[in-house]
Amino acid sequence: MLPGRRSRRVGDQILKEIASLLLHTIRDPRVVGVTVTGIRMTDDLKRARVFYSLMGEAGEIARAQKGLESATGFIKREIGMRMELRYVPDIRFVHDPSLELGSRMERVLSGLQAGVDGEPDTDE
Predict the structure, then answer these.
(1) What is the DSSP letter of 120?
(2) Which of 21, 57, 63, 64 is the least crowded, having the fewest Cβ atoms under 10 Å away?
């Protein structure tokens, strides 16, 4: 088996479980609206960085981070019960600003397009 391939498969499954837990089980209002966007596992499956996104201001993101950190023990326990792993990885949540950046770029491009569409033809 290629190195890292198992960690990628296990990581994908863990990500699905975390997304399901956030959507259906965890009732902490601080994590409402959080979207998990990716996971990076170590090859030995001992540590996982779970990337999440949240549209909002810095204060909302900080509250979501605290909520995710407080739910980490519960998430690890649930993953341990749902998946057959020798070790449940240590989970660390990391904010992923890519959705916000994409949204900002979309607004800029829309503004540029509106500016181009609204200008009169200067060739005549």
Answers:
(1) P
(2) 57
CB 82 within 8 A of CB 17: yes
Of 93, 76, 77, nearest in space to 30 by CA: 93
Please check whether residue 30 is in contact with residue 64, taking contact to mean a CB–CB distance below 8 angstroms: yes
Q: How far is CA 21 from CA 1, 68, 100, in A?
A: 30, 11, 23
Q: Give the bridge partners for 48, in sequence order.
A: 41, 91
Candidate CATH numbers 1.20.1250.20, 1.10.510.10, 3.30.300.20, 3.40.50.300; the one for domain 5-117 = 3.30.300.20
Per-residue pLDDT of the chain in tens (124 residues, 90 and over written 9): 455 588 899 999 999 999 999 999 999 999 999 999 999 999 899 999 999 999 888 899 999 999 999 999 999 999 999 998 888 999 999 999 877 777 778 888 888 887 776 655 555 4
Q: In what order do the strands lie in the sheet with 90-95?
A: 35-41, 47-53, 90-95
CB atoms within 10 A of CB 115: 9
